[in-house]
Design brief:
With 168 residues, the chain is α+β, with helices and mostly antiparallel strands. It has a single domain, classed as DD-peptidase/beta-lactamase superfamily (Beta-lactamase, 3-Layer(aba) Sandwich), CATH 3.40.710. Helices cover 26% and strands 18% of the residues. It has helices at 13-17, 49-60, 68-75, 148-165, and strands at residues 79-80, 98-99, 104-106, 115-122, 125-132, 137-143. Strands 1-2-3-4-5-6 form a 6-stranded antiparallel beta sheet, with helices on both faces. The longest helix has 18 residues, at 148-165. It starts with 12 loop residues before the first helix and ends with a helix.
Length: 168
């Protein structure tokens, strides 16, 4: 699957000029630091809103034949919470019931449908992507300041929006 031409670990100088400016805890601008290959597996991927929306659309293409196997593998829950003791750092954007390939799986609860989500933060930017693959609804949010309470509220608001737009 090709996400988009602007998604990369190693942006060009032109792409770097268009990066969202991250800010520290006190609101000070943070420098742009090149992503180290050692972090490629866990973060540092830079993208644009348009590429992220294409990625969400691909994940929501439930009946699309192109990429169907990759979606199925990506969305499948592999590690369930009841196999883990303890669990740390996985509940900030919603209770982790299981892990898929990079996605935190939130099982349906009440009116909330199954949600796959991923939060991230680097260089003064927090982002959150969440979607309900069986309901065709996805949300992408980003803020450009290290503000942990706001980042947690961002995930909660996105999950509530998905629940309101796509109830079970």
């Amino acid at each position: 699957m090709r996400v988009g031409s602007a998604t990369t670990f190693d942006p060009t100088d032109e792409q770097r000029r268009n990066l969202m400016q991250g800010h520290g805890f006190k609101g000070e601008p943070l420098p742009d630091i090149k992503t180290s290959p050692g972090t490629y597996g866990s973060g540092g991927l830079l993208s644009t809103p348009n590429d992220m929306l294409r990625f969400l659309a691909w994940n929501l293409d439930r009946f699309g034949e192109k990429g169907a196997e990759a979606r199925m593998i990506s969305h499948a829950a592999y590690l369930f919470r009841d196999n883990l003791d303890p669990v740390y750092g996985m509940d900030e954007s919603g209770h982790m019931d299981a892990m898929a390939l990079g996605w935190v799986v939130m099982q349906p609860q009440g009116d909330r449908p199954l949600i796959l989500q991923k939060a991230g933060g680097m260089q003064g930017v927090f982002s959150y992507a969440a979607f309900a693959p069986m309901r065709g609804v996805g949300v992408l949010i980003a803020i450009n300041q290290y503000d942990f309470p706001l980042a947690m509220a961002m995930g909660e608001a996105a999950n509530e929006l998905i629940e309101q737009l796509a109830p079970r």
